[in-house]
Design brief:
By secondary structure, the chain is of the alpha+beta class. The protein contains eight helices and 20 strands. It has helices at 43-51, 97-101, 110-123, 139-152, 169-186, 197-203, 221-226, 231-237; strands at residues 3-14, 17-28, 32-36, 58-63, 66-70, 82-85, 157-161, 189-194, 206-211, 214-219, 241-249, 252-255, 258-261, 273-278, 283-286, 294-302, 307-313, 318-323, 334-339, 345-348. It has a six-stranded mixed β-sheet with strand order 6-7-8-3-9-10, with helices on both faces. A five-stranded antiparallel β-sheet has the order 13-12-11-14-20. It comes from Neptunomonas concharum.
């Protein structure tokens, strides 16, 4: 399938200051892409460039093969057939839910507008709230209305800027799944900006890490989690720690945690120095055993679905292990540390 949206060597600037540069990616019809990165990395600037609200200083943006933005040419936002959901929802306070959704449908006949609004209300599961005003809605309901308004004009591409940041944790989880389902039902492409890794993993088909004004990596959430191309990406998509090691052969490494054996080749030669990135979920306390590093349990925090242990190795380093099985270790217990890494994340020393 050909790409619906193609971004090639894009740069955006404010005055003389470049905010993002050399950004390239593409998404297909029906695909949900996420731009994930820390605050101030240029995510919103990039999104506004896609929408046509901000000019681009270099590169090209294409929709279905047509150039919609370049350094010398730009199609107005209203001609791009894109829907936008803003971080603060941007609902009109003096308009009802019904009129907010219908706002971009002025060229439609009244009967058509009414039919579209009703279908959108059904889609976002607010069929009985058409006469209410924004101040009478919860944050989640306001988000659904903003989404309905963006979808009402049948856009080719939906853009969402930190759409769940104003909601509490539980509502964010619930609504991110719901919004993904709605977008998929409509079979439209979407670009979602967020700083929340869990949210990005839940909603996206493809994911890009934006940092320091550059797109650091682009791929599926699974690829970025298991095969990050840099330590910066590895740390941003999931908690973990770096361990120095010496390669013994193509599948084993000597580390302070002991000799670690892997099913997959490491891509290094014997005696090469390397760094292993290991996540807390890959570590577990076990009874003291030969060949494993020995540690003292500093703390144990039960979190419901898992238990977090802080373990002090005999060399003084403190590491974190997160285990889903119920273990009986308590503060002060002596244990060994088992490493169960399925796919090694390795970087040169």
């Amino acid at each position: 399938m050909s790409e619906l949206l193609s971004v090639e060597s894009l740069a955006c600037a404010y005055g003389q200051q470049t905010i993002v540069s050399d950004v390239s990616f593409g998404i297909k019809q029906g695909e949900i892409a996420c731009l994930l990165g820390p605050s101030g990395c240029g995510k919103t600037t990039l999104l506004r460039g896609l929408a046509g609200f901000n000019p681009i200083s270099a590169g090209v943006i294409r929709m279905a093969g047509e150039i919609i933005s370049s350094a010398t040419h730009s199609i107005p936002p209203e001609k791009r057939r894109m829907g936008m959901v803003f971080q603060d929802y941007a609902l009109f306070p003096h308009l009802s839910v019904e009129d907010n959704i219908a706002f971009g449908l002025k060229e439609q006949k009244r009967s058509q507008r009414r039919a579209i609004v009703l279908s959108m209300l059904e889609l976002v599961r607010l069929p009985d709230l058409s006469k209410r005003y924004p101040h009478e809605l919860s944050g989640g309901q306001q988000q659904r209305v903003a989404l309905a308004r963006a979808l009402a004009s049948r856009p080719r591409l939906l853009l969402m800027d930190e759409p769940f940041s104003n909601l509490d944790t539980e509502m964010r989880k619930e609504l991110s799944l719901e919004v993904r389902d709605i977008i998929k039902q409509q079979d439209i492409a979407a670009v979602v900006v967020t700083h929340d890794q869990e949210e990005a993993f839940v909603i996206s088909d493809v994911l890009g890490i934006l940092a320091d004004g550059k797109l650091q990596q682009w791929g599926t959430p699974e690829a970025l989690y298991y095969q990050p191309n840099s330590l910066q990406v590895a740390r941003f998509v999931g908690e973990g720690e770096l361990y120095e090691g010496a390669c013994l052969n193509e599948r084993s490494v000597q580390t302070e945690l002991g000799v670690l054996e892997f099913a997959e080749p490491l891509g290094f030669q014997s005696k090469d120095q390397l760094n292993l990135f290991i996540r807390p979920a890959d570590l577990s306390p076990i009874p003291v055993a030969e060949g494993h590093a020995v540690a003292t349990v500093l703390s144990r925090d039960f979190m419901g679905e898992a238990t977090r242990y802080r373990l002090k190795l005999d060399n003084g380093r403190v590491v974190t292990a997160v285990v889903r099985e119920l273990l009986s270790y308590r503060e002060g217990d002596r244990v060994s540390v088992q490493v169960a890494v399925h796919r090694p994340i390795v970087f040169p020393a």
